[in-house]
Every structure is written in C-alpha cells, then in structure tokens.
Amino acid sequence: MLGFLEKVIIGINDLLWNKHILVVMLLFTGMYFTIKTRFLPFRKFKEMIRVITEKNTVRNDDGESISSFQAFCVSTASRVGAGNLAGVVAAISIGGPGSIFWMWIVALVGSSSAFIESTLAQIYKERDPVTGGYRGGPAYFMEKALNKRWMGVLFAISGLICWAGVSQVMSNTMTESIYNIFKIDKLLIISILTVLGAIILFGKKDKIARVLEKLVPVMATLYLAVVLFIVLKNIAVLPKMLLEIVENAFGIKQAVSGGIGAVVMQGVKRGLFSNEAGSGSAPCAAAAANVSHPVKQGLIQSLGVFVDTLLICSATAFVMLLADKSVTKGLVGMELLQKSTEYHIGSIGQYFIAFILLLFCFSTFLGILYYAKPNIAFLYDKKIGQEIYKVFALVMFFLGGLSKYNFVWALADFGLGLMTIINLCAIMPLSKVAIESLEDYEMNHEGKKKFKI
User: Which residues cross the membrane (predicted)?
Assistant: First the structure.
C-alpha cells in the first residue's frame, strides 16, 4: 500500500514540478500582479527600504505579536535555506550562467505576488486568544474573504505536510555536510541540534521570532561579506562574468544547440522555488506582525524576495562563476560550490560553506515551524495542538538527520505544490482587496495614517 501511495505522490510531483505546471502558474500570476500594481517592485523599492528601516510606531504590548522586522526575519529565514546554495548550484550545473539572469527576472515578478499575499494576510488577520498577539495567513483569508473553510483546511494540511518534510530535508542536509567535512558522527550532530531546537521551541514563550531576528542578519551579513571580498578580489574579471551571464541568458551561445529552453527554465524554476513567492508560506508570518498599515508588511515581505534572490542567490552564483574554469571543470552539485570557494579563499572555504549551510538550514527549520503555528490553530484551536506538532517536527528533524527518507521528501514536494495551487486560486480573486489597500496607502501619505482593520 505504501509503495503504491509513493508512486502516486511521485507521479503527481512529476506533473507539477517537472512538467512545469507550477512554474507557469507562478510566473503568470506574478506577471499579472506586477501589472495590476503598476510595477510595484520598481515604483516602491525605495519605500520598501524606508519601511523596514523606520522605527516601529506600533507598541507590541498586546501579547506575543511581533514587529514587522521580526516577521521579515522569519520569512527570510525560511527562504534563505539550502536552496540558496544547492538550488543555485543546480541551476548553473544544468542551465549554465544564463539561468542566473532569469532568476533575477523572476525575483522582480515574484515580489509582486509576495506583496499581494502578505498584504491580504495582514488585512484578514485576527487576535490569537491564547497568546494575545495576531495570527493569520492564507487559510484565514480563504475562510473570511472567500467563505470557504474547506479550502483553508486543505491549505493548512498541505502546509503542515510540506513543513514536516522540509524539516527532514534541512536536518539531512546539515548532518551530511558536517559529516563530509569534519567526520563527526551524525547521531551526535543531530542530537545537539535537536536539543537546541527544543530549547528554542519550548518554554514560557516561543523564542523563534527573537532568535531569528538576531540570527538572520548575522548569517546573511557573514555570507555576503565573504562574497564581497571575493568579488573585490576578482573585480577585474567581473565585467566578463556579467557579460557571460547575459550572453547565456539570451542564448547567444546556446541557440545553435537548442539549449536556450534549459537556460530559461532552470533560472525561472529555481528562482520561484527559492523565494517562495506565491506559495502562501510567508503570509503566515506576515500576519503576526503588528504594523500601522497592511501594505507596510506587504512591502517588507516583497523586499524579502529581493534579499533571497538578488543578494543571497546571486552571491552563490558569483562565487562559482568567478572561479577559474580549470578548477571547476566537470564539477556539479555542492562540490562545485565548495571547490569554487576554496579557489577564492583557500582550504578554509569548504569549512565556511559547511558552517553557512548549517546556519541557513537551521534557520529554515525554525522559520517553517513559525509558519505552522497559525495553521495548527486554524485546524485545532487548543494549545495542546501546538505542543504536539512541535514534538512531531522535532522527531522528524531528528530522524532526517540520521537518514534520508525519499518518501518523506516526496511528500514535502507534494505538500508544497498543493498549497501553492490552493493559495494562487485564492489570491487571484482577492488581489483587488490588496490593490485597494495599496491605493489607500499611497493616498494617505505613504501609510502615515493608521489603517483600521
């Protein structure tokens, strides 16, 4: 029975992911929202920076509500994961340097989808009777705005399946990476990380948002600082690398062999999968933020897509593309990134990548558990439900660190695909509400007047 179910799940995943159904859906909706918002990523980029750097004027003394910056860090933590390293490596390995250009384009398009879904999450959020803060997300606006609780239930279940599977993917990636470099026993590694996760998750108050608020800026800054050093060290060949990306992106070299399709599709697919825009994940954190206007959080979450793709993913790509071709010739996968980093900064490079991967993956694990909170409450509004899922997630995390379970990984892909389709079906008809909120924000001095929810 399990074998038959696994075949069915793998078959559906192949249809959704490898046949590019989800890619087309995400790209189409992103382009639609970009047009409807009058190219918001370009018009409001300066405002995104202003909003995330402004002092929060809304007091968070109403329970466990979080600041807009904490919500940004939670969503960024889940976006900035193994995909920013392994995903970019895969894109370049299969699609070549040109795939990075299309990842940039997708980030511009996807940021509009992130704005719509996160603004909706803010508009339809509600008070959490247990914590006193806020909660919300796609499941909530599906019930409140569309009057379709069944749709919200299906989204919540799909998300919980996905996030449980992702916790295994992250733990397996961490233990494999550390073991390959340091030869430390996997059981010891995952035991320490599981205990650390339990300390953060359990206690008087959930510490996820506060931990990620400190961890995300540190890990991103550390990674980008090393990459900046590498770029400056190779500044003379930087123009050549950028020209190579553009030439490959438009098939100047690939057109003869018919490889342009692989270049475009790899860039589009990896970009969409990395930044999560449109999947419905980030709104689960966005709804918890206590801000003076829904659009502010929409803009901040939109900025998160830029951070994920234009900064972190580009940084990974630059490390590989600036390396001498004789060093990286024939290499694929994480070995390509490790050898490229070693070329630039010496033998410490492999240890640096292992450490960064550890931080990225562990922060992703914490981020997706924060996403799970409002969805568990949507299905079963008792505190015991939250505690049970935490234990379940930690068990999955622990087991994933010891061994790779292909069926669980397939379930994660299935859950992500299903929740994305459900979310897109909801935000398309509701996008007019988010756009009206944007118009209100722009007419009232860029959100200086408090929005009444």
Answer: 20-40, 85-105, 150-166, 187-203, 215-232, 303-323, 343-371, 391-408
Who has greater pLDDT, 94 or 123?
A: 123
- Spell out the SS3 assignment of the chain: CHHHHHHHHHHHHHHHHHCCHHHHHHHHHHHHHHHHCCCHHHHCHHHHHHHHHCCCCCCCCCCCCECHHHHHHHHHHHHCCHHHCHHHHHHHHHHCCHHHHHHHHHHHHHHHHHHHHHHHHHHCCEECCCCCCEECCHHHHHHHCCCCHHHHHHHHHHHHHHHHHHHHHHHHHHHHHHHHHHCCCHHHHHHHHHHHHHHHHCCCCCCHHHHHHHHHHHHHHHHHHHHHHHHHHCHHHHHHHHHHHHHHHCCCCCCCCCCHHHHHHHHHHHHHHHHCCCCCCCHHHHCCECCCCHHHHHHHHHHHHHHHHHHHHHHHHHHHHCCCHHHHCCCCHHHHHHHHHHHHHCCHHHHHHHHHHHHHHHHHHHHHHHHHHHHHHHHCCCHHHHHHHHHHHHHHHHHHHHCCCHHHHHHHHHHHHHHHHHHHHHHHHHHHHHHHHHHHHHHCCCCCCCCCC
122-140 pLDDT, tens digit each: 999 998 887 778 899 999 9
Q: What does the pLDDT look like over 189-245, one tens digit per residue? A: 999 999 998 888 886 666 777 888 888 888 888 888 998 999 999 899 888 888 888
